[in-house]
Specification:
Strand order of the largest sheet: 3-4-5
Number of helices: 1
Shape: elongated
Number of strands: 5
Structural class: alpha+beta
Radius of gyration: 23 Å
Distance between the termini: 47 Å
Strand content: 15-25%
Helix content: 25-40%
Order of helices and strands: EEEEEH
Length: 95
Amino acid sequence: MIIVRRLTGQPFAINPDLIERIECTPDTILVLLDGTRYIVNESLDEVVSLIQDHRAAIVARSLTVSTTTDIAPADPGIGGDNVIVPLHTRPRGEQ
């Protein structure tokens, strides 16, 4: 989530993955995928920078987790629930 401010100065958090586009007319308007519009205090450049920082933090965090976490693979001999069963497939053209 990124934190932006309404024109009144009230902060709110928004999921940047739901932002379809950002308009500047002259107010900055965040348009979400569902068509919802939010007018915010931040400029276009500031919102883009917030989104870039948010996504960079996610990537950095995932790299940190993947290099510091040692997860052993599941032992198929323990418990018996870890069995991979192939799904039945039909040849092409068969109904």
